[in-house]
Please model this.
Amino acid sequence: MIRKASFFFSFLCLIFFSAIVIFLFTESLPIWKSEGASFFSRKLWYYRNESFGLLAMVFGTVWVSILALGIAAPIGLGTAIYISEYSGGKARLFLKVLVELLAGVPSVVYGLLGVLVLRGWIRQTFSLQSGDTLLTAGILLAIMILPTLVSLSEDALQGVPRRYREASRAMGLTKVQAIIYTLLPSAKTGLISSGLLALGRALGETIAVFLVIGRADNRLPKTLFSLKPLVEAGQTLTSKLGGSEVNLAYGDPLHWGAICGAALVLLSMALVAYIIGELLIFQAPER
Amino acid sequence: MNNNVLISLRNVSVFAKKKQLLSPVSFDVVPNTIHSLMGPSGVGKSTLLKCINRLTDLQPELRVEGEIWYRNKNILSPRTNVENIRKKIGMVFQAPVIFPGSIEKNVLFGIKRMAPEKKKDFPEILEMSLREAALWDEVKDRLKDRAHLLSVGQKQRLSIARVLALRPEIILLDEPTSALDPRSTELIENLFVSLKKAHTLILVTHDKSQTEGICDSCIEFTWENGVGKMNEIQAACGTSCEEPTLTLAPKLETI
Amino acid sequence: MLDKLLNRLLPIVCFVCTLLTFLLLVGVISYVFSRGFSALSWEFLSTPTKEAGSAGGILYQILGTLILGFGTTIFVSPLAYGYALIHSFFLKSGKRKRLMSVFIYSLNGFPSIIFGIFGFFLFVKFLGWGKSWLAGGILLALVSLPTVTVAIIERIKEIPSLHKEAAYAMGFNGEKVAWSVIIPQSLGGYFTGLFLGLARAIGETAPILFTATVFAGATLPTGVSQSPVLSLPYHLFVLAQDSYNPQALTNGWGAALVLIGIVFTLSFLALPARMIVHQKAKNDE
Model:
C-alpha cells in the first residue's frame, strides 16, 4: 500500500516537472518557428509589431546577475573565512544560524526596501532622473544572495579536514598562509559551486528585480562594454515574465510563444548554473 | 644536562579547560634515534606530540604546562617564534595530507613559503627529498601529475617528502602507518630507519612490533584515574635495528 | 613580503566583510522593524483593509497567506514523503537513486516565476479556474518540494541499519518496516523540512502573482474556481509599486513586519535541527 502510494507520488513529482518543461517547449514552438535563432539576436521586443527579440533582456539579466555576484562574492568569501577560521565554537554557531535565518527574508521585502530606500540613494548618488537602474537591481540582488553565499562557502571551508590546516601549520606556515595556500585551494570546488548556486538564484529572482529595474524594453548600449547601462533602466527576463504582458499575451499564439520562449531561456540559464553547481558538490575532490 | 640531548621534556602536562588529560611527562631525546610513544587510544600520545611543535595552539581549549627545551630555548614559552620551531620540527600525520596540485607542488609546498629565497635550489631539493622518502624512482617521470592519483602508500611517502624538503632536525610521526597496507607499512618502516642517519624521529604508534622492530626506545602510556600517565622508558630495539650500540649507549646514560 | 602584508591584512579584511554582511542584513530587519512597528496593533491584525491599504488592517492578507500555507502543506507532504521513501528506502539500485537525487536537487534551481507562468497556463486558462487559492497551494508546494524532500532523505539516511535489520528479522516486509521504523524515525526531518519549505513558500510572490492572489475584493474562498485570496507578499508587491500615501506605506511596513514574523517563526521551529547539523559539521573534521 505505502509502496504503491509512494511510487504514485514520486511519479506525480516527475510528471509535474516534466510537464513544466514540455509545456514551455510546446507553447513556445510558434516563436521558434517564426524567429528561430534570431529570437536571441533580435534587439527589438515590440509586440504590437510582432517583433520579438530577447537580446536586450538577456543582456539585462546577465549584467544584473554578474553585478550581484561581483559584489556579493568577495564579501561573502571574506565573511565565510571569518566565520569558519576566526570565530570559534558558540560564536560560529550563532553567526551561522543568523545567516540562515536572514536568508529567509522574502524577496518582496527586499523589493520594498529597494523601492523606498535604495532607489532614492542611487538617484542622489549618481544624480539621476530616476533611481530605477540595473545598478539598483544588482546591488539589491547582491544583498539578497549574500546569506546563501556565506552559508554555502562556509560549508565548503568547514568541509576541508582539520589535518590539512594542521599539516600546513606544522610546516611553519602562518594561519594566513595556511588559509591562502591550503584552505582556499582545497575548498576551491565547493567555493565555485556556492558561487554558481548563488548565480542560479540571482538569475531567477523576479520580484525584487521587477520593482527596481524600471522595466524599460530595448535598452542596449552601442558598445558592449559600456558602463552607461548600469545607471539606466532596463529589463531582465524575469521582470518581463513578472509583468502584466503575460496576461495580455495569452491568446495570441506568437506573443504567448515569445513569453514561453523567454521563460524557457530563463529556465535553461538558471538550471545550467544550478546543476553544474550541484554536480561540483557531488563530486567533491578526494580528501 | 647531557649535551648529547637534542630535545628535553620537563614535566609537560596537558589540560582541556579544567580537566587534566595528561599527568606530567619528562624525558629526553638524543639525536639520530627513533623514539616511540605507545599506549591505548585517547591516552594523550598524539596531543603530547603536538605539544612539541606547538600545534596544540590550534586548539584553544587545550592548555599545556611544563617546559620543552630545544637548542637552549623553551618551546612552550609564549615568546617562542612557533613558525621557526615548526620549520625545524616536521610532522607527519595519520592519514596522508595531499594538497591540490602536482607531485612537485606538494613536495615544494612548505619550502616555497618558508624559504622562498632558495628558489634556484628547488629542483635539487625536490629530487633529494623524494629520494630520501624512497619515492623518487616511482614518480621521477611524472612530477607534474596530480598528486591525488598516487596510491595511499605513495601519498604518505609524499607527505614525508614534503616535510623532508624543509630539512627538519626532528620529525614527529603521528601513527604514520595506521592507514596503510602491510606492504607500504614495511616500506615506510625501512624508510624511517634510513632517515635516522640525518634526523631524529618521534613516533606515536599502536603497533608493538613496529616499536620493537625499528625504535631505539619506547615510552608507554597508561590510564590512571582517567588521566594519561607515562610509564618508564624501555629500550626497545629489536634485531632489525642497524646501529644499536651507537644510539643506545648515550640514551641509557641520560635516564 | 606579500605574505607579510597579507598576514596583517587578511584577518582585518575578513572581519570587515563579516561586519558589513551582518550590518547589511541586520540593518534590513531593523529598518523594517523600526518603520513597521508603529503600525502594529491588535486592530491592525484583526480588521480588513480599507481605502487601498491606507486604512484598516491586514486580516484577510494574513488569513490568505495562512490558507496558501495550508494548501502547500496538504500537497507537499505526500509528494515529498513518497519521493523520499522511494529514493531512500524502496529503491535499491544506485543508478536510479542517483538520478532521483540529481532531479530533486535541480528543482531548487527552478526560478519561481516559471511556476507562475506554468500555473497561469494550466490552472487559470487550461482548467479555467481563474485565480484560485488551490492553484497557489499546489504551485507553492512545488516550490517547497525539494526542501522538504531533502530534509526527509537526510533523516532516513541517519536511521541505523540495525533498526531496519531488527524489524526485518521479526519477519516484517518492506511495507511494515516503512510504517514501523522509517516513517516514525524520519518525522523529525519531515517537520524540519516542512517548516523551512513553508518559510520559503509563504514569502514567494512570483508563483501566485497570476494564479492565486488579488490585491482587494476577496475574503475567504468558498470553492475552487474563481476563488482568489489576499496575501501578504502580493499586498506588499502592489503597495511597493504604486503607493505614495504615507499612511499606506506605514501599513505596508507593518505588513512586511508581520510577513517576516511568520517566516522567522517557521525558521525558528526548524532551528534545533539545523543547530545539530552545524555542530556535526564541526565535529566531523
Observations:
- Residues 157 and 187 of chain A are 6 Å apart (CA to CA).
- The two ends of chain A are 43 Å apart (CA to CA).
- Chain A touches chain C through 94 residues (CB under 8 Å).
